[in-house]
Amino acid sequence: MSESKSFISGCKGLTLTQDEKSFFRNERPWGFILFGRNIGEPAQIADLTAEMRDCVGAGSDIPVLIDQEGGRVQRIRPPHAPQYPNAAALGAIWREDAEKGLRAAWLMSRLHAFDLLRLGVNVDCLPVLDVAVPGVHDVIGNRAYGQDADIVSAMGKAAAEGLKAGGLLPVMKHMPGHGRTTVDSHHDLPVVTAALADLEACDFVPFRRMNDELMAMSAHIVFTAVDADSPATTSQKVVREIIRGHIGFDGLLMSDDVSMNALRGDIAERARGIIAAGLDIVLHCHGIMEEMIAVTENVPPLAGDSLRRANAVRAGFPTPDDADEQALREEFGALVAVA
Q: Has 186 been annotated as catalytic?
């Protein structure tokens, strides 16, 4: 059996097509990601994640990711999962009572784990460690726990621990910080002109405090104080000096979606640029076969430090605790209004 390639792939619909199955068997992505278009009934989701794993080896340690934050970024919604509050609502609890805020963040992640693990999803792209700066674009906005690096760090840590207590692994995003953007990186390239000292004192802090986590997702953002020419996702300097250096993160670093228009060039050029910058994994979300082929033709099999980091993830899935789901849901409901 061939080794995994350095990409994570989405798919088009509720089940895998024959073309997708053949592609995944031949190209062997390291993992998969689900979006709203892939979400139907719970049994269908479980069947889809099983199909994905079957294409590349069937192991329960094959990562299947989802963005299940709460608020507006929540792929599985009622009636199949509660509508959870956004991070800002949890941050508001923290500001009233820090202990209750941390408990709410932990509980919500633990409940995400109940929701997701039974469907075959074992990675949640959470916590959002971006520190919201007032007056900038709302692409992050209420997805952030707050405007203070200490609050974001503490709440992000609690959220990550809640996922791990339930058997899931977290992905920190968007490294090294997405909170100052004035445009939406899905559509345009954000440029942050803050001084390096300001970034180190605020934006980078939550990531540095959680640098022992196993996975992180990059930000498609130019930081002119570090590299005025390339966004973090394709900047060797940002990866080497800030993410691996100042932040001290030696875990698996994946790109944000390679299809986002903040990145220059076609999909093939973007994929090559991501790997050349020193990231471990290219993330492709949209399930468009022509783009998937372009990605896989331009990324290598996992090797060296990237393979070491990827293996650490697959060996790092925790055993879920024996928590009482209903009791935790009632406790969370007493802290936060849940639809």
A: yes
